Amino acid sequence: MKTLLLIITGLLTAFSTFAAELNFSSLENGDSVELTLHARGCFQNSTSWYEIRKSNGTCSLTKYAITWDKSVPAKIIEKKAIGELQLTQSDIAGLDSLLGYFRSKKQSSTTTLISLQLEYYEGGRRIRVENLEDESGGFDLRNRKDIVSFHELIERFHSSTNRPSAQAQ
């Protein structure tokens, strides 16, 4: 009986650890999250690929351009980094809040569906995949100053890479 109780306790502990929500702030050095962000609606149909990686105590966001072959299922032919941004603690907290928003019940809905697939890696080994969806159109986000979107981060990346250098001035 004690053995059965120990097994059940061990399984419950393992399950509760696995079932816990993962966040960007919980990444350790060498961990990463690969993200696929897809937006589909009346006026858009786009997919973007990102990776958030923690190294030397700092997180960075990399945006990728991916070329697929035409086989079924499609396979990646080329994965090319097209930009990288160092993230602040505030950015990480904002992205954690964004995940919380995706995981929460919404007050509104639209014809636009935003889906987010997160693949969590520890030491190069995929440990979990999470699929999140949002059909709210972002209306619940209007007054949320605690959330950072991928769009905001990529805009910041583009604005920093498009500035004229000091030598050109």
Poorly predicted tracts of residues:
4-18, 165-169
Task: Report the span from N to C terminus.
Answer: 78 Å
| Residue fraction in strands | 35-45%
Which term fits the overall shape? globular
Helix content: 25-40%
Rg result: 19 Å
Number of domains: 1
Mean pLDDT over the full residue set: 80
Q: What strand line-up does the widest sheet have?
A: 4-3-2-1-5-6
The secondary-structure class comes to alpha+beta
Q: What is the H-and-E element order?
A: HEEEEHEEH
Give the biggest beta sheet.
6 strands, antiparallel
Q: Main traits of this protein?
A:
single chain, alpha+beta, six-stranded antiparallel β-sheet, globular, disordered C terminus
Detailed description of the structure:
Mean pLDDT is 80; it is low at 4-18 and 165-169. This protein has one domain. It has 3 helices and 6 strands. The protein has 169 residues and is an alpha+beta fold. The N and C termini lie far apart (78 Å). Strands 4-3-2-1-5-6 form a 6-stranded antiparallel sheet, with helices on one face.
